[in-house]
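Pasting as-is:
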Amino acid sequence: MVVDRNTKIGDLLKMREDALDIIASITPAFEKLRNPVLRKSIAPRVRVKDAARIGNMPVNTFLKFLEKHDFEVSYDERDTMEVQPKKCEVLKNYKTVSLDVRADLESGRDPFNKIREKLAGLEKGEALEVIVDFEPVPLIDLFERSGYDHCTICRDGYVSTYFFKPMPEEGGLWNKIKGIFGRQRKTAYEPAPLTKIEIGDAEDFKRLLNRYEGKIVTLDVRGMEMPMPMMTVLEALSHLPEGQALLVEHERIPQYLLPELKKRGKRIAAQKTGEGHTRLIIY
C-alpha cells in the first residue's frame, strides 16, 4: 500500500504492528493516539494531511518520516503547510469566545456540557474557540450535525478548534421570496433550545429487555475518558438498525446525553446495578 496525503491514520495502524510507535514518535501531538479510546475514535477519520496539520508540519515532512521507516509513500507536489486552513479566514468576521478545556480533561471532568452551553450562548457574529491538546474529531462530527461549521488551527503546544454558525446571506432570492409570503427567516446562528427527556425506571428497563430480546446491540463505555462515552453512544446510534435497541453499560445516567437523545426521537430506561454501574437501554 502506498501512503499519500489522503491515507487514513487508521489504515496506517493496520499496516504494521510498530506503526503506532512510529507515528507517536513524530511529534508529542500524536502521543494521544496511545489512548485506545481516542485512537478508535480519531484514527479512522483523520488522514495524513490532517495529521500533518495537527503536528504543525508540511505533509511531505510527515511522509518523509514514514519513508525513513520503510513505508512506501507518494509525496504531495504542493508540499504546503496546512496549519491554518483557508476556511479559517472567515473568522475575521466573527468575535471569538474562548474556552480552554484541557484542565477538565486532565482531571477527568467531562467538558461537554460546558462546551455546549457556550455554543448555545453565542450571539450573532460570535465563534467559539475550544482549546484542547488534539483536534476534537468526535465533537466536530457531532456539532456539524447541528449546523455548526468549524476550522482548526494548530498552535504552539495546543490546538484551537472554532465552531460557528454560517452568517445568514442578506438580500438573497430565497429571502425575497419568503418575504413576499410574509415568512420570517430564522437566523442561522440561533441555537437550538436544550430539551429534557423522561427516563424509564428499572421496571421499564426489564420490560424493554424482553421486548427487544434478540434485537439488542450492546456497548460498554465504562472507563472511557470524557467526552468519549457520549460520542461513542451517539456514533453507535447512528448505525443502529431500525427496530433494534442499544444496551449501554455505563457508570451513571449521562445527563448531558439526554437532550441529544430527545432530538433524535429516542427514549431511554435505566437500571442501576451497583456503585459505578448503570445499565441503559436506548430505543
